[in-house]
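Exercise (ungraded).
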Amino acid sequence: MIEKIVKMSKNEWPLWEVFIRSKQGLNHKHVGSLRAADAVMAIENARDVYTRRSEGISIWVIESNNVHASDPSDMDSLFEPGQTKVYRHPTFYDVPDGISHM
Amino acid sequence: MQFNMERKYSQEELEKRFQDKIDNDIKIEPNDWMPEAYRKTLVRQISQHAHSEIVGMLPEGNWITRAPNLRRKAVLLAKVQDEAGHGLYLYSAVETLGTDREDTIDDLHSGKAKYSSIFNYPTLTWADMGAVGWLVDGAAIMNQVPLCRCSYGPYARAMVRVCKEESFHQRQGFEIMAKLAQGSPAQKEMAQDALNRFWWPSIMMFGPNDSDSPNSAQSTKWKIKRFSNDELRQQFIDATVPQAELIGLTVPDKEMKFNKDTGHYEHGPINWDEFWQVVNGNGPCNEDRINTRRKAKEDGEWVRAGANAYAEKRRMKVAV
Amino acid sequence: MKEHLFEYLLRLGDDSLILGHRVSEWCGHGPILEEDIALTNISLDLIGQATSLLKYAAEVEGKGRNEDQLAFLRIDREYKNSLLVEQQNGDFGVTIMRQFLFDAYRMPLYEALSKSKDEHLAAIAEKSLKETKYHYRHSAEWVIRLGDGTDESHERVQNALDALYRYSSDLFFTNEVDEALVKKGIIPEIKVIRNKWLLSVKNVFTEATLEIPTNNWEQIGGRIGKHSEYLGHLLAEMQYMQRTYPNLEW
């Protein structure tokens, strides 16, 4: 998603990002965006647009203006590769043979 | 965001990193650095695609109130509604590139932006609903499936959604045609007539011959075009001619014949004059289609304003 | 008794059919894409309800007709929809006001019918109630938004209310058909429904800053087949294919 100021010219409605949890136990997933005048309308529109084939049990809507995104040029410092923190990976540890469920 | 990247890396380095990603099938996402030309091409392509979905609602919408039974009425409504939804996913994708939906739509209404030329043809009989679903959606699917793997993340994801929903569109169209072709003489004639009128415009949907498509090479390099116009057109013809034969209808091309050596159908000459005339605004329905969309927007102005005013009043109340 | 149930099912089914048809006319012309999709959803729900109700009606009639024959081959006098639902779409304000007045009646009606002694009807009502609750929410919210929006939106929905309110009396018209079915516990007493309707309508109009018209001269007749001039045109369009190509399959 990009950070942008959404224009309110010519009676445009604000842009909302839509997140849907399709099944109990799953995370909400970003599915797209839509226009709505307020949050109540945004949720109803999201239901009509993104769950027409019964794909949702929970809907989150967030005005696009309120989404804050990381800067790709900061990727180097923000996301140091996991390669240097090897002790976080299970393969770093030897577990004797015969131990199951680990 | 772009500016930050441009401070860190040179233009050359950025372009190389960008092309490397594409060559390695790593998706480009909205916040990533991209050449301005890539962004512009995508905006044009995706918005054209979105406009096609929305304008495409009209030729089929024309028969909703005259659908011949309850089931056909419901199915047609659902299909046209899906098209609205597809348009919405695509406008949503184009907005990630920093363009405003309203500006994009204004370009459609002013004639600046194009949409698929097929929708400038009229739907004159119920059989046209069959022809449109079978041929037009069939052609669209051929174009859309490869786009599920295009380089731009939001566009690819929108295409995956669209493709999932699209398969019933073609099926219901073909089912309508099959039913008519096996019905009364009047029904069979209706079906053949619809095929006669929609065949050529459908194969023109794939665009001009590759030799007349100057932008194709760059789009292919950027993976926003996965197959050439002629390749897709041939695929479509090879798939569709046998389908017509199966239900006892004849494709209106006297030169159509199967080449055993190549395994492909060879077809007669396409009337490119007609194609360019229609693309440039002289088709049977161009004006009607645009006027209808313009009117819908104008008529809706007070509705959108009303909703905004109400939302604003609520915000003020909460603030106080 | 069978005739009474058949008659009543036609009223329910025709309301859904004609209103569903009217709303479907918006497809491709909505005030914004999202609302185009919402209206089409409503239309689809109504057509689905019409199909279930007319199918059951045909069964009850027992003359071998099916839902399509009922939907597409009756003459105007045989349709029993209320006058309200056959009114033209007008602008979005008229459409949403018509929808609201109807949903505010349909919701308590389906609630009551889901407890009907007729199991089949109860099942249809229960399924349809879920959809109707959503329709009601949608139309009520829009009436409020537009009523309390701009001066222009307020004026348009007030005008719509002034024009349509009189047809709502047709929703509450009853005759010996209803009497008989109430006695058998198949349908509720209409005044219970009417009271709930009045409450919803008053609350929503207050919030929407709208005034209920004082000219309340009732317009009735739909339930006994006396329609407005609009229904004839609507049916001419809707029935075209079946009339022009009789006895064929599609």
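Further reading is listed at the end of the chapter. For now, observe: The two ends of chain B are 36 Å apart (CA to CA). Residues 69 and 75 of chain B are 10 Å apart (CA to CA).
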